[in-house]
From TrEMBL:
Keywords associated with the record: Signal
Protein name: Sugar ABC transporter substrate-binding protein
Origin species: Micromonospora andamanensis
Signal sequence, renumbered to the chain: 1-21
Source organism superkingdom: Bacteria
Record keyword Signal present: yes
Pfam families per UniProt: SBP_bac_1 (PF01547)
Record InterPro entries: Bact_solute-bd_prot1, SBP
The keyword Signal appears for this protein: yes
Amino acid sequence: MKTRRTLATVAMLAAASGLVACSSDEGGSDASNCTNTITKQDLPVVTMWAWYPNMQLVVDNFNEANNEVQVCWTNVGQGGDQYDKFQTAISAGTGAPDVIMVEMDRIPTFQIQNALVDISGYGRDAVRANYGDGAWKDVSVGDAVYGVPVDGGPLAMIYRKDIFDKYDITPPTTWAEYEQAAQKVKDAGGPLFGDLGANVPALMMALQIQKGAAPFTYDSAQPESIGVRLNDQASKDVLDYWAGLVRKGLIGTQDQFTPEYISGVINGNYATYISAAWAPGYLTGAGVGQGQDTGTFAVAPLPQWDPNNPVQVNWGGSAFSVTSQSKKPELAAKAAYGLYADQESLTDGWTNQIIFPLNLTALNNPEFVDLKVAFFDGQQANKEVYVPAANAYQGVVYSPFGQYYFDAMTKQISEMSAGSVTGSQAADRLQEDVTKHATEQGFTVR
C-alpha cells in the first residue's frame, strides 16, 4: 500500500528527470539480452540487474549449480544510474527485472511504491540461519523481508601507525579518548586527527545510532505513519561532539571520496579514518597503502561512548530483491537466495576485496577470519575488528525517503562545519526539514 501523494510525487520526479521507460530492447525484463551465456536452455529464466564487479562469475556459478532456474544478468549502471532506470520502470509499470541489486537503505523507498516483493514466504526459513539478525533487519520493513543480504560495512577506526608511534598515541577505545588523542597530536604540531566530510551522511547516521539514536520508526503494516526523531539528545550529542572537533581544529572538513581527500590520506594529513569494512578495498583501489605509505595502516575497533556497553554500527551494504513486476516471484526468490551464497563466489568476493560478506558461511570461515590483510601490514583485521563488529550489529530501521534525509543531513553538516550552526541547532533544523518533507509526502509523523 502506498499513499496517493507519494505516488504522485514519484511520478513527477520521474517525469522531471526526463527518464524514458526501459523497454525489453534496453535490457529490462528481456531474457534474450544477457551479459552471461545461459547453457541450460530447457530451464525457466529470470532476469537480474546488478553491478558487483564479479557478477559474471557469481551468475555463472549459480547457473551451473542450479537445475530449477537460470539467471540472465545485465549491468544497467551502478547505484543511482540503476535506480533511475528502476524508478522509470516502476512508473511505467514495465521494464523492471525479476531480481535487482539494491543498497539496503534504498529498500523502503522502493517498497512503499509496491515495487518489491515480500520474500519471507518464498524460502526464507531455509536460509535464515545463514545471516545474522542485524543483516535481516536491514533488509526488512516491519516483519516483511524485501531482500537477501549480501555485503555490509561494520564500522571501525583505520589509523596511521607511523603517526600514532611518533606522537605516542594508543588507539582510543572511547570517543573521549579520541578527542584527547587528537588534542595531543595538535599540540605537538602534528596532522589533523580525522575528517568530517559532509558528503557521508550515512556515516553520521550510524555514529548517532551508536550513541542510542533511533532516527526512524517505520513498519510496512502502517505505511502512512512514520516516526521521525532526528533531534533527540543522542543525535544532538554526536553532532555537537563532531562540531567541537572541527571548532578546535582537531579534524578536517574535506569531502571524502575526492582526489583531494585521497591525496591527504596518502600524504599523512589525517591520523585516522573512521570508515567501514569495505574501506581497505576502496583505499587500495584509490592508490592508498602503496609506495611511501605501504605498511603504515592498521585498524582498531570503533571508539565507544560507553565501553561497558559497546554498540557496533554499520555503513553500507547491498541485497538482492525480487521486484513486483516479476511474473515468476518464487523462482526469482530462489535466485536471490542462491546468488552470491556459494563458497566459490563468496571466497572470490572477499579475497578480491569486492565485498565484506554477511553470509555466515564466509563470515565464520577460518580462512576469512584469520586472513592477514596486506593493506594492514599483515594484521588479522577480520578476527580482531571486523568480524566481531559484524556479529554484534543489531540492524537499523531505514526510511522510505532516505535520499532526501541524507541530502538534508549533508546540508546541515556543511553548515555546522562552517560554524553557521551548532550541532544541536543542526539537529533541530534537520528534524524540521525532514518532518515537513514527510508530511508533504502524505505521511503522518509521530
